Amino acid sequence: MMLPKDPAENLAALIRCPSVTPAEGGALTALEAMLKPLGFTVERPVFSEDGTPDIENLYARLSGNGPHLMFAGHTDVVPVGDEAAWKHPPFSATVDNGEMYGRGAVDMKGGIACFVAALARHIETHGKPKGSISLLITGDEEGPAINGTTKLLDWAAGKGEKWDASIVGEPTNPDALGDMIKIGRRGSLSGTITVNGRQGHAAYPHLADNPVRGLMTLVDALLVPDFDEGTKDFQPTNLEVTTIDVGNPATNVIPAKASASFNIRFNDTWGAETIQAEIHNRLDVACGRKKYRKGRKEPIEFELTWRDGPSHVFLTRDEKLIETLSGSVEAVTGRKPGLSTSGGTSDARFIKDHCPVVEFGLVGKTMHMVDERVAVADLETLTDIYGRFIQDWFERG
């Protein structure tokens, strides 16, 4: 029986599956074929919700007596963009000058390929781990994340599954393997401000009320002053305006309304509810300002709508999990990894409600880019790190 011990071969098989969200693309089938020879039971539930595509997911379990470790990740990938701009076809898994090219190479089929290889090598050398290992793999991480990890966790928990710790194989390292372990994430919240004005001729502004002026005032209030200076474990809270729109094709017409969308990444100074309250308060205070509305007496009329499903801030404090992974990284690479909460969100935001979770994977420099690629040598290094971590985490009991 051939075990999937070579991470490069594992990754090539996964890259060759065009699993652009929401398509399964054969990636979960390829992964199932790797896991069954290792003794895993594999289930592939499909979850649905109105207004969203059905998503196929995978849950695999290798049962044993002892603690339960979960490896989590996703096989779905973002679109390739301009395929003609790629040096090698994006689903070819071509190796060129020591690097494997392909969509998902680092985000995050590479992490999955390495974890499976590490498991195969561990089983061949040591036998089954002293406990249980599961893989919780979704096809909806790069999409709306509705029919993926959150429902897969609830489905598994409903069947009686409990986990002692989880590692997510996202590409966490900025420059080299061993740079960084993610031990938490900032919260994330998005909203849209719409300011109502009065349409009119640009040459007769006194007969109209330009909503852009009011919108500028409200946006000012969201950007200044800073929300906080950061905390011991987190960067300062930051708000970015992501779109401004008036829906107006004419240059001589004052528009009737204007809107601005924003995203805020908040640290543990705030919760989702308190940061929403702060934003509401800033807008309410600013609506009477006349900085850009000289001569206007009436307050700015605005509406604030929130996107569904804010991501909550979290920080993992599990010493066994963090110290074991840090030790494994340092033993293999010689680097002591930094413990970080930087970056965007990941599916760890759902897992943290079920067990302690950290993230560690490949170098993320080319994720989502044309010519996404990974050094084949890094695949071996990450496999060695995961292998040592599996051994040491179960040994610690």
Can you walk me through this structure?
The chain has nine helices and 21 strands. The chain has helices at 7-15, 27-35, 109-126, 149-158, 211-223, 272-286, 319-333, 348-351, 376-395; strands at 41-43, 46-49, 52-56, 58-62, 68-74, 95-96, 99-101, 132-138, 165-168, 180-182, 184-185, 187-196, 200-201, 238-245, 253-254, 257-266, 301-306, 314-315, 338-340, 357-359, 373-375. The longest helix is centred in the last third of the chain and has 20 residues, at 376-395. 45% of the residues are buried.
Radius of gyration: 24 Å
Mean pLDDT: 96
Q: State the oligomer.
A: single chain
- Supply the number of helical segments: 9
Strand fraction equals 15-25%
Helical content, roughly? 25-40%
The tally of beta strands, per DSSP, is 21
What is the H/E string? Answer: HHEEEEEEEHEHEEEEEHEEEHEEHEHEEH
Low-pLDDT parts are none
Globally, the shape reads elongated
**Structure classification:** alpha+beta
The first-to-last residue Cα distance is 30 Å
